[in-house]
Automatic annotation (TrEMBL):
The lineage of its organism: Eukaryota, Fungi, Dikarya, Ascomycota, Pezizomycotina. Keywords: Membrane, Transmembrane, Transmembrane helix. This is Uncharacterized protein. The chain crosses the membrane at residues 210-232, 335-357, 442-465, 834-854, 866-890. PANTHER family: SPRAY, SPRAY-RELATED. InterPro entries: DUF3433. It comes from Neocucurbitaria cava. The keyword Membrane applies.
Length: 946
C-alpha cells in the first residue's frame, strides 16, 4: 500500500491530506504485509513506514558521455543546499506520484496515455495483490509497482522496514531525476557560462622497449661510422682526378707504364689464382707527378728515380696459356643457385596465398600472447625477410654492372661510351635504372627495378599482418525453456481499454492489470533507443534459447537457428452501405459500428461494437472543453457478435478489428458532430490478424536481446499444431492489448489520441493519418504503416508474456539445441592491399629471376674482372690502351671527349698482341679483334638484350 498526501481531484483511493497538517504535505505512508495461509492463522504483522523526501542541490564536477549524455563520473565539490522553489515544483511531482494524474491532458508527441504508468502489469506477474487498503477496497498505487521494479528483490525482503524504505527512496530519486531532466532542458531565456573540459580518447603508437634499444644502438653505430667516414674522406690525401669506374679510366692510369703492361700482357688467359701467383709478391703505388697519374711497381719506380737500368721484360719468355682453358661466369648465374633463388619467391608467394585464404574469414590465431613475440612474428621477421632479399638483387645488379661493358664488346663494334667508357660502378645499383634504360640494357634495368621494389616489399611485409577483435563461434548445446506451443487461451479475457481492471479471471497473457507494458516498451524503443525485450525484433518473436535469469553464458553471446512467431494484418477498405454502418450516437456521443463479415466458410457474420463516451476535446478540468477549426478523431473497435451468436460467429468477430479516421472542418464547438458517418467525413478499414511462424538464425547476448539482424528468416502461415486450442483465441486476446483505447476525442492538432495511431505515426515518421488539415487518408496511406506498427506491438507483446503464453518444458526433460557460443577474440588478419602488393612483387621477382637466368652473361672470361690486375690483363697487349696515353690527368668529361675524337670501335675477342706478336683474348680496337665464337648451343640460339 502507498498513500500520498495530495489528492485534490480525487483520483487516488487514499490520501493523507485529510489527516496530516499542510506542513507535512511531503509525507507519504507505505505498508507491506504477508497474507495468511488460511483463515485460522493468526494475523500477520504489517511493515509500515512514514517517509518524507528532502530536495537539495549541490555543486559537482560531472563527466558526461558526449554521445549518450549519460554521466559516468561525478565528483562532489560543494555542500548540499535546499532546492530552489523557483526551479522545481515539488508539490506538483508529489501530487502526480500520489494520484497518477494532474487532471489536464498534455497534448504533444507523447504516448497518449491519460495518466502515468500504473505498473499493474508488473505487479500482476508477481504474487502481490492488485487490491489495496482495508478489505481490498482500493487499487494498489503506481508507486508500489515502481518501488518494487526499481529495487527488484524477493517480496519477502520488503517485510524489513529498511528495505521497504530504501525501495521507495530509489523510486523517488528516479522520478525526480526524470522530471528534472525535462526541467533542465536547453530552452532557457538566460544561461550561465561555465568552464569545462573535453576529454577525448585517442589511440597511440606504443613502442616496444627492447627493440627501441636495439634500434638506438644500431643508429649510434651507424652515426659513428658515418662521422668516421666523413673525417677520413676530408683528411685523406687524394691522387685521383676522376673516379676509376670504367675500363677507359683504368686504361688511362696504366697506358704510359709500358713495363707494367709488358708484365701483365701475358696474363690475359690466366685464372685469378695464376695472376695472384705472378703478381702476389709485387708492390704497386698510385703516383701523381703533376702531369700524369698512374700505377707503377714500387721497386721499379724507386729504380727509375735512381736512374737504374730496367731489364726488358718483353724479352722475357713466360710460360702462360694462350687460350682460356675453362671460361667462367659468376656462380650467382649458375643453375644450382638460380633454382633456389626462384623457388624462394614462388614459395613465399604460395605461403602468403595460403595464409591469406585461411585468414580471410575469421583470421588466424595469435602466435603468442607475449607482445614481443607477436611483434617478432608479425612485423620484424617479415620485414627482415623482405630486407634480406634486397642484397640478393643488389649482388646480381653489381655483377651485371661489372659485366655489361664486356657484354657490349661481344659485337666487336661497340662505341666507347657504351663499352669501355660505360660507367655503371659509380652509382648505387638502384640508381642505375634510368641509365640502363637509356642504354637499352633491359635485363640490367629490370634487376635495378627489383632492387628498388625490395624497399616496397619490406614496407608491404611490415604492414601485412594486423590484429582485430572479432566474434568467434564455438559449438555449444542449449536447452530451450519453452516449447514452441501456445497454452490454452480464452480469447475473450484481457484488459479493457480505459479501465484499471479488465476480465476478472486470468488466461494466457492476462493475469490482471491494464495491459500497457507493450506500449511503454515500444515507445522507449522508438523514441529513446532502449533495446526491445528479449527474443524480439521489430517483426517477430523468437523461441528462447535459455532462461535469462539462469543463463551461464558468462557475458558471451549465443546464436542458433530457432523458431519465429509473428503476425501481420490483412486489411480491406470498407464501404458504407447495408453491410457497414458507423456513427456517433445519442447525447453522450457514443461511437458505434456494425459490420457484416464473411467467414472462412463463406457465412455472413454480423459484428458490432459501441464504444465509450467520445470527448469533444482534450481531457481538462474545465467542463465543455472543445476544439475549433479543422478537427480529427480516430476510432478503434474490437468487435463482439450479436446476441445468441454461435461459437463460430463469435470467433469471427473476435478475430477482427475496425479502425476509423474522422474529419470535421468545423470542430467540436459548440457541439460535436453526431449522427451516422459517411465517406465524406470518415474512412474505415477492417483488419484480421494473421499469425505467422518460421525459422531464423539469431544472435543474442546474455539477456536474450538480439545483437544483430536475424538471418535466413523463413515465414509461413502458422500451423494448428502450434496452438493448444483454436488460434483465434490468441488473436482475440492480443487484440484486447494492442487495439486498446481510452475514450477517444476530437483534436485540432496532428498528435495521435490513441496508442495504435501513435505508433503508426512513429513507424513511418508521418502524421498523415491524424493531421486534421489533411483530407481523409486513403487505404494505401493506412495499410503499410498500420501493419508495421502492429507487427512491432505484437512481437513485443509475445516477448514480455512468453512465460504465460508458451508451454514450459519440464526441467528434467529439456530438449537440446545445437548452437554456438560467440566470444570476442583477437585474431591475426592480412591486409588485402599489402597482400596484393606483396604477391605482385614476389611473382615479378620470380619472372625476372628466370629472365635473368635466360639472358645471363656468357661464359667466356678466364676470370671475373673484379680487380685492377684482372682488368688490365684484358687490354695490356692491345693497341686500344695506346689511345688512352696522356689522358690520366683528364676528368670524366675530358676523357669522354677524347674518346669521341678518337671515334674508335672496340670489341672483345682474339687479337694479335702488338708487343709480343702472340694471340691474346681480351679488349682490342676493331677491326683488329675477331668476334668470339659461341661456346654453347643455348648461346647460339638466344640473342641477348644486353
Amino acid at each position: 500500500m502507498y498513500v500520498g498526501y495530495w489528492n485534490p481531484l480525487g483520483f487516488s483511493d487514499y490520501s493523507l491530506d485529510e489527516f496530516c497538517p499542510i506542513t507535512s504535505n511531503s509525507t507519504f505512508y507505505a505498508a507491506f504485509e504477508r497474507n495468511k495461509a488460511k483463515d485460522s492463522d493468526p494475523v500477520q504483522n504489517v511493515t509500515a513506514v512514514f517517509c518524507w523526501p528532502s530536495y537539495y542541490q549541490q555543486r559537482v564536477i560531472a563527466a558526461v558521455d558526449a554521445v549518450s549524455l549519460e554521466p559516468f563520473k561525478v565528483d562532489i565539490v560543494g555542500e548540499k543546499e535546499p532546492l530552489s522553489k523557483d526551479l522545481f515544483n515539488t508539490p506538483r511531482l508529489e501530487e502526480l506520484m500520489a494520484s497518477n494524474s494532474l487532471g489536464d491532458e498534455v497534448r504533444g508527441d507523447l504516448l497518449p496515455s491519460k495518466s502515468t504508468p500504473d505498473y499493474l502489469d508488473f505487479i500482476a506477474r508477481t504474487n502481490l495483490s492488485l487490491s489495496s487498503g482495508p478489505n481490498g477496497a482500493g487499487i494498489v498505487a503506481a508507486m508500489v509497482g515502481l518501488a518494487l521494479a526499481v529495487s527488484d528483490r524477493p517480496l519477502e525482503d520488503y517485510l524489513d522496514w529498511k528495505v521497504l524504505s530504501k525501495s521507495y527512496a530509489d523510486a523517488y530519486r528516479l522520478m525526480f531525476a526524470r522530471a528534472m531532466r525535462d526541467v533542465l532542458d536547453d530552452n532557457f531565456r538566460t544561461t550561465d557560462e561555465v568552464t569545462g573540459q573535453i576529454v577525448a580518447t585517442t589511440e597511440a603508437v606504443v613502442l616496444e622497449p627492447v627493440f627501441v634499444y636495439i634500434v638506438e644502438s644500431f643508429l649510434g653505430v651507424v652515426s659513428v661510422a658515418t662521422i668516421a667516414l666523413l673525417y677520413l674522406s676530408l683528411t685523406r690525401k687524394k691522387h685521383l682526378r676522376s673516379n676509376p669506374s670504367t675500363i677507359a679510366a683504368v686504361m688511362a692510369m696504366v697506358a704510359e707504364n709500358q713495363p707494367l703492361l709488358s708484365d701483365v700482357e701475358g696474363l690475359d688467359c690466366c685464372t685469378m689464382e695464376e695472376i695472384k701467383k705472378h703478381l702476389g709478391d709485387k708492390r704497386y703505388k698510385l703516383v701523381d707527378d703533376g702531369s700524369t697519374i698512374g700505377i707503377v711497381e714500387l721497386d721499379a719506380y724507386q729504380d727509375i728515380t735512381g736512374n737504374a737500368l730496367l731489364p726488358d721484360l718483353r724479352a722475357q719468355r713466360r710460360d702462360t696459356p694462350s687460350d682460356i682453358a675453362k671460361p667462367v661466369r659468376p656462380i650467382e648465374f649458375r643453375l644450382w643457385v638460380v633454382v633456389p633463388f626462384v623457388s624462394l619467391f614462388i614459395t613465399l608467394a604460395i605461403c602468403l596465398s595460403v595464409l591469406f585464404v585461411k585468414a580471410r574469414m575469421q583470421g588466424l590465431p595469435l602466435p603468442s600472447s607475449n607482445s614481443i613475440v607477436q611483434n617478432l612474428l608479425e612485423n620484424y621477421i617479415p620485414t627482415a625477410i623482405a630486407t634480406l632479399i634486397e642484397p640478393m638483387w643488389i649482388l646480381i645488379n653489381r655483377l651485371l654492372c661489372m659485366l655489361q661493358p664486356i657484354e657490349e664488346l661481344q659485337s666487336c663494334n661497340a662505341r666507347a661510351k657504351k663499352s669501355i667508357d660505360l660507367d655503371y660502378s659509380s652509382l648505387p645499383p638502384q640508381l642505375v635504372f634510368f641509365k640502363a634504360l637509356r642504354s637499352k640494357h633491359f635485363v640490367l634495368a629490370a634487376v635495378c627495378a627489383m632492387a628498388l621494389l625490395a624497399n616496397l616489399l619490406a614496407i608491404a611485409f611490415s604492414g601485412l599482418f594486423n590484429q582485430a577483435t572479432i566474434d568467434m563461434r564455438h559449438p555449444t548445446v542449449m536447452k530451450p525453456p519453452f516449447d514452441f506451443k501456445v497454452v490454452p487461451i480464452n480469447g475473450s479475457i484481457g484488459p479493457i481499454g480505459g479501465l484499471t481492471f479488465g476480465a476478472l479471471s486470468a488466461s494466457g497473457a492476462y493475469q490482471g492489470g491494464s495491459g500497457m507494458d507493450q506500449f511503454l516498451l515500444a515507445d522507449s524503443y522508438l523514441k529513446k533507443g532502449i533495446p526491445l525485450p528479449a527474443w524480439t525484433d521489430e517483426t517477430m518473436f523468437y523461441q528462447p534459447l535459455f532462461l535469462e535469469e539462469a543463463n551461464n553464458t558468462n557475458g558471451h553471446q549465443l546464436g542458433a537457428r530457432t523458431r519465429a512467431f509473428g503476425a501481420k494484418l490483412e486489411c480491406t477498405a470498407v464501404e458504407f452501405g447495408n453491410e457497414f454502418h458507423a456513427g456517433l450516437l445519442g447525447d453522450d456521443i457514443l461511437p458505434s459500428v456494425n459490420i457484416t463479415i464473411t467467414s472462412a466458410t463463406g457465412k455472413a457474420v454480423k459484428c458490432s461494437r459501441i464504444g465509450v463516451y467520445m470527448r469533444a476535446g482534450p481531457i481538462s478540468n474545465v467542463l465543455g472543453n472543445c476544439v475549433t477549426g479543422p478537427s480529427a478523431a480516430e476510432l478503434i473497435f474490437t468487435l463482439v457478435p450479436t446476441a445468441n451468436a454461435t461459437q463460430e460467429e463469435a470467433a469471427v468477430c473476435m478475430g477482427s478489428v475496425v479502425l476509423g479516421w474522422l474529419r470535421d472542418p468545423n470542430g467540436s464547438c459548440p457541439k460535436a458532430m453526431t449522427g451516422m458517418l459517411n465517406e465524406q467525413n470518415a474512412t474505415f478499414v477492417h483488419c484480421r490478424p494473421k499469425l505467422m511462424t518460421g525459422f531464423a538464425t539469431i544472435q543474442v547476448d546474455s539477456s536474450g536481446r538480439l545483437q544483430q539482424d536475424v538471418k535466413d528468416l523463413t515465414v509461413e502461415d502458422a500451423a494448428d499444431d502450434v496452438f493448444s486450442n483454436d488460434p483465434i483465441n490468441l488473436v482475440g486476446q492480443s487484440n484486447e492489448y494492442i487495439f486498446s483505447a481510452d475514450s477517444q476525442g476530437w483534436h485540432n492538432d496532428s498528435f495521435a489520441d490513441d496508442f495504435i495511431n501513435y505508433f503508426i505515426t512513429h513507424s513511418v515518421n508521418s502524421s498523415r493519418l491524424v493531421d486534421p488539415k489533411q483530407g481523409l487518408p486513403s487505404f494505401d496511406d493506412i495499410e503499410g504503416p498500420l501493419n508495421k506498427a502492429y507487427s512491432l506491438l505484437f512481437a513485443i507483446w509475445l516477448g514480455i508474456n512468453k512465460d504465460k503464453l508458451f508451454i514450459p518444458y519440464e526441467t528434467t526433460g529439456l530438449p537440446t539445441l545445437d548452437g554456438w557460443r560467440i566470444e570476442p577474440e583477437t585474431r591475426l588478419f592480412m591486409s588485402t592491399p599489402m597482400f596484393i602488393i606483396s604477391e605482385v612483387i614476389l611473382c615479378t621477382y620470380a619472372i625476372v629471376a628466370i629472365m635473368v637466368y635466360m639472358r645471363r652473361p656468357g661464359q667466356y672470361l678466364a676470370r671475373m674482372p673484379t680487380s685492377i690486375a684482372s682488368v688490365v690483363a684484358l687490354f695490356a697487349a692491345s693497341a686500344a690502351v695506346l689511345d688512352m696515353a696522356g689522358t690520366s690527368y683528364l676528368d670524366k668529361k675530358g676523357r669522354a671527349h677524347h674518346l669521341e675524337e678518337v671515334d674508335a670501335r672496340y670489341g672483345y675477342g682474339s687479337y694479335i698482341g702488338g708487343g709480343d706478336g702472340r694471340v691474346h683474348i681480351g679488349i682490342e680496337k676493331s677491326p683488329f679483334v675477331r668476334v668470339r665464337s659461341k661456346t654453347t648451343w643455348f648461346e647460339k640460339k638466344v640473342n641477348s638484350f644486353r
